Amino acid sequence: MGMQAGAATLENSTEVPQKTKNRTTLRPSNCTTRHLSTGYREALGEYLDGKKESEEDQSKSYKQKEESRLKLAKLLLCGTELVTNIQVAADIREIHRRVEEGEIRRQRLEKLENEVKTSQDKFDEITMKWEEGKRKRIPQDLWDMLNTQQVHCAGLIEDKNKLISELQQELKTKDDQYVKDLKKQSDDICLLLERMEEQVKNVMKTFRQELNSIEKAFEAERRELLTSNKKKWERALQAHNAKELEYLLSRIKKVEDYEKQLNKQRVWDCEEYNTIKIKLEQDVQILEQQLQQMKATYQLNQEKLEYNFQVLKKRDEESVVIKSQQKRKISRLHDILNNLRSKYTRQIRQFEEENQSLTSDYIRLVTQFKELQKAMRHFALLDDKRFREIWLMNEEEAKDLISKAFDVDRIIHTQHLGLPWTAPDFWFLRNVGPISQQQQRSATQILEEVLIQTEEEGMEEATSETESYLDLPKQVSMKTTRKILMLLCDESGFLIESKLLNLLRPLEKSECYLLKLDAIFSALGIESEDDLYKLVNFFLKYRVHHSPSSQERTSPMSALDPGEQTDLERQKEGSLVGGEPEEKEVPPSPTLIHPNDVLKILEAFVMGLRKPRDPPAPVKVVKYVRDTSKDSAYWEALATVLPYATQNLWDALYTALEKYHLVLTQRAKLLIENNSLEKQNTELQMLLQQYLDSKINSELHVPPTQVLRAPTK
Amino acid sequence: MQSMQATLGTPTSSALSRFSTSTQDKSSTAGQTSSTGPQPSRPSIIPPPSKSKGWGTGASGGRMRRIIAEDPEWSLAIVPLLTELCIQHIVGNFQNNPILKQLLPEHKQKVLDHLSPDLPLAVTANLIDDESYWRRCCTQRWPVCHVAKHGGSWKRMFFERHLENLLRHFIPSTTDPALILELLPLCRNYVRRLRVDQFLPPMKLPPRPRSGELSESGSEAEVEEPATDHYQLGDLVAGLSHLEELDLVYGVKDCGMNFEWNLFLFTYRDCHSLAATIKACHTLKIFRLTRSKVDDDKARVLIRSLLDHPALEELDLSHNLVGDRGARAAAKLLSHSRLRVLNLANNQVRALGAQSLAHALAHNTNLISLNLRLNCIEDEGGQALAHALQTNRCLTTLHLGGNELSEPTATLLSQVLAVNTTLTSINLSCNHIGLDGGKQLLEGMSDNRTLLEFDLRLSDVAQESEYLIGQALCANREAARQRAPNPSCFLSPITAKGPENPAG
Predict the structure, then answer these.
(1) B116 to chain A, closest Cα gap in Å
(2) Whether the predicted pLDDT of B128 surpasses 70
(3) Is residue A28 assigned to a domain?
(4) Would you state the pLDDT for residue B200?
(5) A52 touches chain B (CB under 8 A)
(6) pLDDT-derived band at B204, boundaries 50, 70, 90
(7) Are B29 and B116 in contact (CB under 8 A)?
(8) Distance between CA atoms of residues A65 and A57, nearest Å
C-alpha cells in the first residue's frame, strides 16, 4: 500500500513540471493518447506536407504553420509523456515491489531455515530419546519418557503448524494483495484509457483549432492576394478596355475607308467590265465572221483538196508508170555506167602509162636542159675566159707598147732633151682585164650557183676550186657555204610557209633546198650577196668565238671589212696570176656548228643585220650581158696615150738623131777597128802567157814571167 | 479489468459457441442470398414493388391500360435488362456455380457488389480478389478493423484474423485439427502475419482437487507435462508460404479469478516444436514470444534454432523469465544473424547477461534497437553496454529503464553521447542516476546533435538538468527536421513506440 502511495505521489510530482511546461495551451487535465489513429496522423501529415510545399514562400501562412507545428509537437510530446508516465510509474512500482519481495523472500527463507534447524534439533533429540527409551526397562520410566516424547512431538508439530499458519496468513495477505494489485492495475488502465481519450480529444481539438487558424491565415492571405490581384486585374482590364475602344474606333474608320475604296473599286470595275464586255462582244462578232469565212475557205479548200487528191491519184498512177520506166532507165544507165567505169579505168591506166612516159621524157628533157645549160655555162665561161685572155693579150701588147713609148719618151726627155720627165698617169693604164661593172648579184643567184656547182661537184667528183668563177667566197669554200646553208635550211624550216612546203614536196631535193632557202632568206631579210656572205661569215665567226682553240688561226679572216679591202689587191694579183681564187686556209669543218646553235646564231645575226639596213635597191640584172660601151674608149685612150706634141717633138728629134746616128756609125766603125786591134793584142798576150806558163819557166832560175809580171803590174 | 472478467467468465465455451453460430449463419444465409441479397443494395434501379405491379397490370387487361398511361412511374426503363437478370442469377447461384472471370469488367464489378459476405471461403478465397468484397466481409464480422495493420489489404486482414481466431480457440485433443488444416490451402497465399495472443491448454478436469500449495501445483504441472501441450504450429506454418511475422503468447487471456498456474505452461515439447517450426520458416522476419514463461533453457532452444536464419529481423522475448544464459544466447544470435530489433524487456537479465550482450553489440552492424527494460543489469552491465556503444555505429534506440543503474553508468553514457552519432533515443527512466549523474549527462548532451529522445523520468535527476536536456533534445529535433524536410518525423518516434504493450 505504501508502495502505491509512493507511486501516486511520484506520479503527481512528475505531473507538476509537465503542467508548468504546458503553459497556457495545455490545460492541466490534458491527457494524451499514444494510440492516436495512424490514419488521422497520416492525413494530418499529408495535409501539412502539401500546405508546406505549396505555400512555403508565403510568409504569413508559413509562420502560422510553423507556430502550429511547434505547438502540436509540444502537445503530442507532452501527451505521450503524460500517458507513458503511468507506465513508468508502474515500472518503478514493480521494481520496488521486486525489491521488497526479494527482501521478504530472503527473510522467509531464513526463517524457514531456522525453523528447519530448530525442528531438526528437536527431532534429533526426540529420536535420541527413542533410543534411550528402548534401553529403558522400567515401564514407568518408559511411560514418562513416552509422555515427554509425546509432549515434545506435540510441541514440534505445533511449531510446524504455527509456521504453516503463518505462511498461510501470508499467502492470504498475498492473495489480498493480488486482488488489490488487479484492482490497481485496472484502475491504472482505466486512468490510461481516460487519459488517452482525453488526449485524443484534446489533440483533435487543438489540431482542429490549429487547422482553423492555419486556414484563417491562408484565407486572409488569399483574400489579400485576391484583392491585390483583383485590383491588378481591374487595372489591366481598364487598360485593355481603353485599348479595345481605340482599336474599335480605328477599326471603324478603317472599315469606312475600305468601304469607300471598295465602292470606288466596284464602280471602276463595273465600267471596266462593261468596256471589256463590249470589246469582247465585238471580238466575238469578228471572230464569228472570221469563223464563217474560215468555214467557207475550208469548204473551198476541201473541194480543192479533193480535186487535188484526184489529180494526185492520177498523177500517182502516172508516176507509177514513170517509175517503172525510170527503173528500166536506171538499169540501162547502170549498164552504161559500168561500161564507162571500165572505160574510165582503162583510160586511167592508159593515162598513167602516158604520164609515166611523159614524166620520163620530162626528166630526160630536164637533164638535157641542164646539160645544155651546163654546156652553155661552160661555153660562156670559156668565152669569157677567151675574151679575157684576148683582152689581156691585147692589153698587154698595148701596154708594152705604151711602156716602150713611155721609155722612149723618158729617154728622149731625159737624155736628149735634158728635161725632167714625168710619167703620165691614166686610169686605163692601171686597168687589167675587160672592163666590167661589178654588180651585186642577188643572194638567190649565188645560192643557185653554189648549189648547182656543188651538186655538180658532188656528181662529177671534180675539184671545183679551179673552175669556180665565183670570185666572191673569198675565205670560204663552196663546200662550207653549202653545208652552212643546208644546215640553215634544215634547222629553220619554221620560217617557210606550210603552203610552200606542200608545193615543194614533189620537187627534187636540190630545188627543194633552193626554194626553201629562198623563203628563209626572204623571211630573214637577206637580199644581196653581201648579206649572204655576212651570214656565212657570221656563222664562221660564231663558231670561232665558241671554239677558242681555233681563234688565233681564224682571227685574220674574222673581220669582214679587211677581207673586202683585200679584194682589190687580190684582183690585181689575180689578174697577174690568172684569176685563180686561193684559199689560204681551209676553214674548219662546219659540222662543228651544232644544229642547236643555229637558231641562236640566226637571232644574233638578224639583230645585227637590222641596223645597217639599206633600203633595198631594186636589182634587176640581166644575166651575162656585157657592157661594151667603154671598151672602144678604153682602147682609144690606150692608142692616144702619147700626145701629138710629143710626136712632133719626136719627129724633130728623129731627124736630129739621124744625123747624130751617122756620126755615131762612123765612130762605131772606128771602134770596131779598135776592137780588132785589141783582139790581136790579147792573142799575142795569150801566146805569151802560154809560153810563160810552160814548164821550162819553172826550170829556169830566172823565169821571164817574173820579169814580165813586174812591169805588167 | 473487472468488467472484462465478468463478461468472459468461460472463454472456451463462449468461443466455441460463437464459432458454431458463425458457421451456421454462413450456411443459412447462403441459401437466402438469391432473394434478399441484392435487394437492399440497389433500390434505385429495380424497385421490386413497381416492377411486380407493372408486369401485373400489363398482363391483366385492356382496362388497366389507361391506368398504365396515367401511372407516372411506369416506363420501359423499369424492365430490367437481360444482363441484369443474368447477373442476378449468377449472384444467386454463385456458391454452386461461381462465374466471375469470364465476365466483362463492369459486370464483374456488379456481381462482386452483390455477393454475400457469407459465402463459403472454399468458393471465394482463391476466386475473388476484389477488396471491396473482403471489406464487406471484415466489417460484417468485426466491428473494429485496422486494415493498415494488415498491409492495407482487406483480404489479407480477413484471412489473418480468421486464422488467428481459429487458433485462439483451438483446444488440443478436443477440436479437430483438420479444421485449421482445411483452411490452409485457402489462406496460404494471403496470410503474412500470425498474431495469436492466447493458446488454450487441453480441456481436462484436474483429477485432483486443487491443493492450497503453489509449489505443489507447479510440480504437478511438470509431472503432467505431456497433457498440457498446446497446438503444434508446425504444419500450419509450413503451409503458409508468405508468413513474415509470428506473434505468440502461450497463455490464457482474461482468466481473471479463475487463475491457475497450469494455464500458463509453455512446455518443453511446445518449445521444441516451436523451435523446429520457426527454423523451417525461412520467410519469417519478426518473431515475438511474450508472456510465456520462457526460461533460460527454452530461450536457448529457441535461439539456437534461429541461428543463421536467413530473414529474421526482429526478436521479441519480453515479459519472460530469460536470465543471463538466455541473454548470452541472444548475444550469440546477434553475431549470427541479421537481427535488427531485440526486445528482452521484463526479464531476469543481470550484469553477466548484459556484459555478453555488450560484447556482441560492440562489433555488431545490424542491430538498431535494443530493449532491456525492467531487468537488473545494474552498473556493471550498464558500463559494459556504454563501452560497447563507444564503438558501435548502428544502434539507434536503447531502452535501459528500470535497471538499477546509477552514477557510474551515467558518467560513461555521457562520454558515449559526446562521441556517438547514431543513437536517437535513450531511455534511462526508473533508475538511480542521481543529481551528479544528471549533470554529467547534461554535459554529454551539450556535445550531441543526433539524440532526439532521452527519457530520464523518475531517475533522481535534478529538474533543472532534465529541463535543459529537454531543450537540447528540442534543438536536435528541429535540426533533424531541417535535415529531412518531412514533417512526420516529429511523429515518428511516437509511432515507433506504438505497439509496445503496457507493463502488466
Answers:
(1) 28
(2) yes
(3) no
(4) 86
(5) yes
(6) low
(7) yes
(8) 12
In total, chain A counts a number of residues equal to: 713
The per-type count for chain A, helices as H runs and strands as E runs, is 18, 0
B287 in helix, strand or coil? Answer: strand
- State mean pLDDT over A65-78: 88
pLDDT of residue A600: 75
- How many residues are present in chain B? 504
Amino acid at A128: M
Rounded Cα distance between A621 and A628, Å, is 16
The amino acid sitting at B280 is A
- The Cβ-side half-sphere exposure at A202, using a 13 Å CA radius, reads 27
Q: What are A18's three cell numbers? A: 509537465
| CB-CB neighbors (< 8 A) of B456 in chain A | none
| Contact (CB, 8 A) for A72 and B481 | no
pLDDT in tens, B359-375: 999 988 999 999 999 99
**CB atoms A10 and B373 under 8 Å:** no
**Contact residues on chain B for A88, CB-CB shorter than 8 A:** 401, 429-430, 455, 457-458
Answer yes or no: do A91 and B490 touch at CB < 8 A. Answer: no
- Alpha-carbon distances of A275 from A49, A282, A287, A288, B412, rounded to whole Å: 83, 11, 18, 20, 120
Site of grid cell 634587176:
A620
Q: All 3 cell numbers of residue B490? A: 516529429
A35–B498: do the CB atoms touch at under 8 Å? yes
Residue B182 counted as domain residue: no
Which residue in the block uniquely carries the three cell numbers 442470398?
B33
B123 assigned to some structural domain: yes
Of the candidates B431, B339, B94, B34, the one whose C-alpha atom is nearest the C-alpha of residue A91 is: B431
Half-sphere exposure of B3 (CA within 13 A, CB side): 3
Chain A, 625 to 654: residues with Cβ < 8 Å from chain B are none
> Residue B126 belongs to what domain range?
81-145
Candidates B429, B490, B498; nearest CB to A88: B429
- Inside any domain, residue A212: yes
**DSSP line for B8-24:** TS-HHHHHHHHHHHHHH
Contact B495 A38 (CB under 8 A): yes
Measured CA to CA, the distance from residue B55 to residue B53 in angstroms comes to: 5
Residues contacting residue A274 through CB under 8 Å, at least 6 positions apart: none
User: CB distance A34–B494 less than 8 Å?
Assistant: yes
Among A92, A176, A192, the strongest candidate for a mutation testing the B interface, having the largest count of B CBs within 10 A, is: A92
Name the DSSP class of B491: T
- Give the C-alpha separation, A379 to A393, whole Å: 20
Residue A33 lies in a domain: no
Q: Does A304 score more than 70 pLDDT?
A: yes
What is the rounded CA–CA span in Å between residue B148 and residue B95?
30
User: What pLDDT is attached to residue B46?
Assistant: 41
Do residues B398 and B357 make contact, with C-beta atoms less than 8 angstroms apart?
no
Q: Do A239 and A343 lie in a common domain?
A: no
Q: How many domains does chain A have?
A: 4
Question: In terms of pLDDT, which residue wins out, A575 or A128?
Answer: A128
Residue B160 has pLDDT above 80, yes or no: yes
ipTM of the complex: 0.73
- Residue of A95, A183, A195, A207 to mutate for B, most B C-beta atoms under 10 A: A95
Q: Are residues A361 and A230 in the same domain?
A: no
Cβ neighbours of residue A585 under 8 Å, at least 6 residues apart?
A: A475, A553, A554, A557
Inside any domain, residue A572: no
Q: Do the Cβ atoms of A530 and A440 come closer than 8 Å?
A: yes
If 0-12 CB within 10 Å is exposed, 13-18 middle and 19+ buried, where does residue B3 land?
A: exposed
Q: Please, how many CA atoms are within 13 Å of residue A331, restricted to the half-sphere of its CB?
A: 5
Higher-confidence residue: A70 or A23?
Answer: A70
Can you say whether the dihedral through the CA atoms of B252, B253, B254, B259 is positive or negative?
positive
* Weakest mean pLDDT among A25-34, A287-296, A354-363, B98-107: A25-34
